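Hey, I'm writing a tutorial for new members on how sequence and structure tokens pair up, and I'd like a real worked example in the thread rather than a made-up one. If someone can provide the structure for the chain below, I'll link this post from the tutorial.
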Amino acid sequence: MLFLTQGRVGVDLFFMISAFFICESTPSIHKSVRKAWILERMLLFWSLILSLYEVVSGGVKLQGQPIKAVAKYWLVACMPTFSNCWWFATSYMGFLFLSPFLIKGLNALPQKWHLALSLISLFTCIVIQLPIFKLPAFLDSGFINVGFLALFVCVAYVRWYMPKLIITRKVGVICLAIGYAWILGLCCWTTMSLLLISIRLYCLSQQGGS
């Protein structure tokens, strides 16, 4: 659970760094499409390589399978983004297409409205990370990822209206400490929940046995 949580934090950090640089540039549909096409080419290359390796190494048995199953396997390999083969790549691709419109919309907002929206987005980012909270499938994966959109709103506000906050080492250390405290707290909460559930199940099994 600890490594899984850190993995999700790593994904969010990678996205925030990417969003930071996207906020610096002038919004352009042409640039977004170009970035998406470069990403798609890389995904297609590795998807075909990995799929072919699985077939050759025997990891995937296509011989004797129905034609529909074989066609589906290679269709997914040839369309890794649209088939949601890797959720992060698909979600990031969707964000690239939406980013010009998001930047235009956020630029049109007054600063105080953008701040309010950032606070709501930050609260959303915290809530959707809780183990007890589960987003609907169409909002948690595929081309629409609520977490990415919420993070982008926050990153855009910091980038445009709080430039001094970005370059302060003290603030960076504080944010790092808060992040690790959040990871530790989430892991402890999850561990205690699993422990309590295990104790409860054990007590029920003892009562049933008696």
